[in-house]
Amino acid sequence: MKRHLFACFSLLLAVLLLCTGCGIREAVSGTAANGGTQAQTGAVSTAPTETTTKNPKDEKLIALTFDDGPNAETTNKILDTLEQNGTKATFFVCGYCLGEKGAEVIKRQIALGCEIGNHTKDHKLTSSGAAQQVGYVNDRVKEIADYDVKLLRAPGGAYKNVIDQVDMPFIQWSIDTNDWRWKDEAHKGRTEAERSAKLEEIKNFVLDSAEPGAIVLMHDIYEFTADLAAMVIPALVAKGYKLVTVSEMYKIYGEELKPSTIYFNIDVSPANADSSEPLPAGTYTVNTKNDPLNMRVEAKQAADVVTKIPKGATVTVTESVSGWAKVTYEGQTGWVSAKYLKPVV
């Protein structure tokens, strides 16, 4: 009898343990399944986030540059406009403007993320005095704000006789507003309506000429230019442009700024350039909005520039790949962005 009871008890205990084990396994399995289901559901329901890597060709970057300052009144007005629109610019400064008032403007420019460039001490640049003219500005800005000036703009863009004398990139421009021609001092007899019409005309010229990679030339020592900037800056932003410094633009577009090298703008191929059809061999004209078109040693944006081809010039296409064409121009051969070539009919 005892043996029978013990056997029954053992059988009952085994059944209980088996059920408990199944329950535990089911619970564990259920937790894992539920967890997996929840993770899967979470992955499906979570909105996709934007990628942090963007194709720089998709960004419409442009660089506004201002020469001859700083001026405590007019430069600060331009800085007000830049700050209000969340934008930046590059200011090529002259040494004779870097007194006490100019120093305060320089500090504000840097605080706003703007770039300071060199426009020489006395607005002159000759081969014999280049070191002194350029060195003074670099040293003075360093003294004012502990800032290293990296870019140079030769007065009047006259770089040919000094290119080998200065170990800095020479920054030219692709859009010239000619704002200095229309300063108030030179047009004292005009009416307010005439002044407003000229401002509107130049603004529209900049908007029509604007393209990614362009460098715009203005002068921040004129009241006329301060008013022009107040119109141009928000208009460019409304058109989808991001206004950055020259150095930022070249860095984002993947082009290195090199010493003793001339830069007018950056040829920015469209984002879909790789899918565009190659051009057939033949004769083409350069169809840029503004001079010039960069001829490069390779079919890529970061390649070194061989020469600049002016708008309207005729080139011969000998070879092409998607978005790029190998051309011959005045005895030189290199690659250009195909979007700027128009076939000669």
Which short descriptors sum up this protein?
345 residues, alpha/beta, TIM Barrel, SH3 type barrels, 2 domains, 6-stranded parallel β-sheet, 5-stranded antiparallel β-sheet, 7 helices, globular, disordered N terminus
- How many domains make up the 3D coordinates? 2
What does the main sheet amount to? Answer: 6 strands, parallel
DSSP summary: helix tally: 7
Strand percentage: 15-25%
- Briefly note the structural class of the backbone: alpha/beta
In the predicted model, the low-confidence regions spanning at least 5 consecutive residues are: 1-9, 11-55, 271-275
The name of the CATH topology of the largest domain is TIM Barrel
What is the ordering of alpha helices and beta strands? HEHEHEHEEHEHEHEEEEEEEE
Question: Topology, pairings included?
Answer:
Layout: H1 2-45, E1 61-67, H2 74-84, E2 90-93, H3 100-111, E3 115-118, H4 130-145, E4 170-171, E5 175-176, H5 192-209, E6 215-219, H6 223-238, E7 242-243, H7 246-252, E8 262-263, E9 282-286, E10 293-296, E11 305-309, E12 314-321, E13 324-329, E14 332-337, E15 341-343
Parallel strand pairs: 1-2, 1-6, 1-7, 2-3, 4-8, 5-6
Antiparallel strand pairs: 9-12, 9-15, 10-11, 12-13, 13-14
Helix pairs in contact: 2-6, 5-6
